[in-house]
Amino acid sequence: MESHGPRRLTSLALALAASGSFAMAVPAAAQTTTVRTTRATTVTAVTTAAPRTSAGKTAARSVSREKANALKAARQYLAMGPFSKRGLHNQLTSRYGSQFSKAAGTYAVNNVKANWNAQAVRAGRVYLEMGLSREEVRQQLKSPYGEKFTKAEADYALRHLPR
């Protein structure tokens, strides 16, 4: 097998797997390692190659705990309902929201892999169901006091909402 740099295994993944409360998907190119713990529990750990930079050096995959938690919170918020990128950032960083740092909030919204156009459509459907006109929906989606979608995202939503 071709080597793509050093292999890493997080202690958190091992600890969670040993407790029996953790399952994870295994990438096709991943290698597995069986580890025996003191509790007679067998843990199959997954290691993957660290990514390489364009210069061929192995890139660090270290993310602060706060940023990782902000990303997890972002995923949870998106599972609950639609958010614009700016609205999600505000929710993550607000003193009335999750209170993450601005840097952690920015990291989360840039790495959550959300389709912001689809989020705008989801939000638009909610407003249509509430009885708002299409123009009122557009205004609510774009408003800095409302959903905070970009003009392009709001326009996309209106093109993809039922008439």
UniProtKB/TrEMBL annotation:
Residues 1-25 form the signal peptide. The keyword Transmembrane helix does not apply. InterPro entries: Ltp-like_HTH (IPR011434), WH-like_DNA-bd_sf (IPR036388). Residues 66-112, 115-161 form the Putative host cell surface-exposed lipoprotein Ltp-like HTH region domain. It comes from the Bacteria. This is Putative host cell surface-exposed lipoprotein Ltp-like HTH region domain-containing protein. It holds the Pfam family Lipoprotein_Ltp.
